[in-house]
Amino acid sequence: MKQKLLVFRRKLLMRYLFLLMCMTGGLAHQQTFGSQQKDLESVFVSLALEDAPVEKVLRTIEQKTDFRFAFDLDQVRNTPLVSISVKKQSLLSVLEDISSKTHLKFKQINSTIHVSKASSTVQKTEGPSQLDFIQVTGKVLDDTGEPLPGASVVVEGEPSKGTVTDIDGNYSIEAAEGATLVFSYIGFESKKVVVGSQSTINVTLAMSTSSLEEVVVVGYGTQKKLSVVGAVDQVGQEKLEGRPVATMSQALQGVSANLIVQQRNSEPGAGINLNIRGISTLGDNSPLIVIDGVIGGDINLLNPSDIESVSVLKDAGSAAIYGSRANNGVVLITTKQGKKNSRPKVTYNGLVGVNTPQFFTQPVHGYQNAMLRNESAFNAGRSEAVFSPEQIRQMRENGDTEWFAKEIFKNALQQNHNLSVSGGGENSTYLVSAGYTDQRSNFVGPEKGYTRYNFRMNLTNEFGRFKMSSKLAYTRRLIKDHSFSSGTLMADANRVPLYYTQKDSLGRYLTNDILQQFNPLGILEKGGFREHIDDNVFGNISGELKLTSDLKMRGVFGFNMYANNMYARTTQVDFYPRGIYGGDRNTTDENRKGLDLNSQLMLQYNKLFSERHEVNALIGVSNENHTDRGVGIYKRFTDPELGTPITETIINPDSYNSNQSSSENSLNSLFGRVSYDLDKKYFAEFSFRYDGSSKFREDIRWGFFPSASIGYRISEEDFMSSYRDRFGEVKIRSSYGVLGNQNVGNYQYQTTFFTFQNAYGFNNAAVGGTGFNYANPNIQWERAATFNIGADLDFMDGALTLSLDYFDKVTSDILVPPAVPGVFGTSLPDFNNGKVSNKGWEITTTYRHRGDLFEHTFSFNLADSKNKVLDFQGEERLTGMEELQVLLKEGYPFNSYVGLKRDGYFQNVDEVENGAKPEGLNVQPGDNRYVDVDGNGVINDDDKYVFGNPFPRMTFGLTYNVRVKGFDLNVFAQGVGNRTMMIRGEMVEPFHYNYGMTMYEHQLDYWTPQNPDARYPRLADNGSQSNTNNFRRGSDMYLFDAAYLRLKNVQVGYTLPKSLAEKLGMQNCRAYLSGQNLFTLSKVDFVDPELSEFDNSMRSGGANSARAYPTMVYYGFGLDITF
């Protein structure tokens, strides 16, 4: 039944896609540049204003109509106050009335009404014979070189002489020599130019620095920044473009305070942790992703060049409207679209470069390694040396062989290419884009890597009171790598000293006394492959109907359809003198398909009462449904000659099997928001979501998640007028609300059953069986009560902005499975058990200076968060993690490290005899000495300390951009000010467990009588009592200060002069050099301090080591061209 339902939905979706393509194609065909304009006589408005500034009157008309006014603020503010009371009167007569009272002149161009000053008296002017009039022509552009259609150009003091730019930004006006032309456009700073003898004047207008006028994307809508009362940080496209990144998550690193992005390694296609404001749950801490208003979708499938803005919702005031999934914050992504009244614009962005592996650690010389092996053996009490003096002499004379770890890596190409076409008419816009990203693997052998193809089409159309938009995106992602584990490959390559080789002169892959069964080079070159092919179609169509001047209805239907395939084949590789890889020649074929459907219906009301009270209300309902189905086939015994699976003669029927899985969940919601604004000074907002999830039992599956927020522009008070004039704006805001988390499995409230092939053996044959998962019928939401208080300030007419926030979040009913012994036979479902506090703060500041020849921008953000378990029902849970343990206990942060605390070293025999020691161990001078917490003279588990937390604290990002004439420099740095990193295994212990036989340069700081304050204890072979004391007792020796500062990206570019670019047939052309990961400053210099021990679920993880795919240093060349 479920399969039939899935098939029906797919057919329905395909019909929708066909209809969408037909409609969007037709709509694009209808776009023209000479559409019939709305007549001022046919638009009616009602106004009731008394002694109001003209600016306020015009803004009120904008709210009630689709027209926008363009004017010079200085001219408008120096006009008399206006009183007007009309009911359903034509806009033309209203403007004529305003004109008669204020001596302002109005001129309609498309949907923009340009305002200029008219003379109230006849002025004496010089006759034509006394003045030289010039026909001035030119172009008005924005600061990116794009034309500004509809910009106002007037002669100062002569209101009858004015014009507007055409679709290409061109204008023509007659002016006397010495006259002043005033250029203005909505959202841009006005500019005045004195007319000399020149007949051509081209002008570039800079974006207005008033941050309060900025439009911010919020949940289910937009707001001006001055009225935003939640903790919302919006990142513009300028911070995302031009960086050599393969995924959208990488592009977001460091651009927003407390938006924490961590990689576990740099392998193409590797997972990335994305987190907002730290850790507040034991489960998945990933934020909710919303793309173009549709919940869900993979952020890393997006093309960064398609992104217009990213809004990060951090508190309950901004995120509660997303309810049960907003506990970890929300990331709203808005893609680009065309502009109205603009001709087709073709844009190309390309970036090509080379990734070079960066090895933080370095082994000692081969002969040196042999000498240290002898020392380690001697300290362990062995009488015979591991290497003879003759062997060491030969090693020294022969020199080092190539380190295996470097031999299996190479430089690799990375390239990004994006092409888009955009434009629009009076009532429509369009954007079509295509992108190609290719990051080659740095592993040697057959070509591997990450490739992504993106296609997008965004269209909008208006038909009177009805607006329609459609967005359709297709992505194909291919990830091809080797058939083995990258971590194991790196471990094997790392642990071989510099006196072995991987190949002999005959091309045979060699094994040795350390790698007795494997050869990393052979596996990479001939051991097979694993290939992922992911296809994704994501889209939505929305319609908006203006029911009245104050009320709109909007409907959205979105979908996300994906099909993922993973095919892997292991081929046999023979090693010499012994060892075989891939002897059973496995073949795996896994397929997974899924469909997400999202439908929304909303009513939005906006009304201004008595010209002081503005109310904005939103109410909506939505349904989300997710279905997923997977199947896998696993087969052995491939043809050794052809390397293909045998399909006809299976030697052993147990050599192949298959499995399949399916799941479905849904969410029904009622949501809303009401905001109130008094005089643009006092703000209040209430939002809520009422969610019903299929993941919970029917009678407890509904949850209510409200929030309330207030804001106060204190700078608008009369007593602050002096401060406002001298410095700028001040707004304080605060919010409180409850957010939810439903990141649990689909059927945990029900007992579920599963089958497996090998339950037990009988008569030398495997017998299948059935198992089950226990249910928790009482499972329900996590709830996070969140408080936030903040302030937004700007200075120097908006050139300098500052945002401050403090938050306090308490999450209750934490979802965590109970601990059970391994012999229990199965795992238990999640239970609501625990309460966690997460507190922190963040600061963001930006300074902008724009001049004709020089401009620069500086942006800095700094943030911190700290969590603590408040209630875990008295339970203390210790989980082993490599040499240490992690703790879950009341009063401590999540996953705090637990181990012994070192107290230096035993320096002599007297200290050994009189000091506390682990019972039964005969320690020596140079061995670790531990703090005896209970003072009983014996070191045991009762003496363990709780140490730092692995999650980054004091995170920061810094961006500096400077442009002088055509040259520009962009610098981006980011880092962490406080973090404890666990580094394990061979990176700490020389000759680790006799598994690794390499010693590294940083380990040369070990104890000797001449080096008593070393970082590491004396050398002693595995199995010795000294080795057991030093490396098997789990201490803070494995913990390191991983604070770092990294120069993440540098760009140096040059933009061709406009005149030269136009001669070459281009509107704009910029070429630049780019570098990534150029410099790192950290106390930890032998591993990458940026790498994370954990993923976004704090239940999993492993200590850091050099076993990860190395960090890449990138050097490349980029080109941005607009036609």
TrEMBL record:
Belongs to the TonB-dependent receptor family. Residues 225-330 form the TonB-dependent receptor plug domain. It is found in: Cell outer membrane. InterPro entries: Beta-barrel_TonB, Beta-barrel_TonB_sf, CarboxyPept-like_regulatory, Plug_dom, Plug_dom_sf, TonB-dep_OMP_SusC/RagA, TonB-dep_OMP_SusC/RagA_CS, TonB-dep_rcpt-like. Keywords: Cell outer membrane, Membrane, Signal, TonB box, Transmembrane, Transmembrane beta strand, Transport. One of its GO terms (cellular component) is cell outer membrane. Its main location: membrane. NCBIfam families: OMP_RagA_SusC, SusC_RagA_signa. This is SusC/RagA family TonB-linked outer membrane protein. Residues 1-28 form the signal peptide. Residues 519-1078 form the TonB-dependent receptor-like beta-barrel domain. It is a multi-pass membrane protein. It comes from the Bacteria. Gene3D superfamilies: 3.55.50.30, Carboxypeptidase-like, regulatory domain, TonB-dependent receptor, beta-barrel domain, TonB-dependent receptor, plug domain.
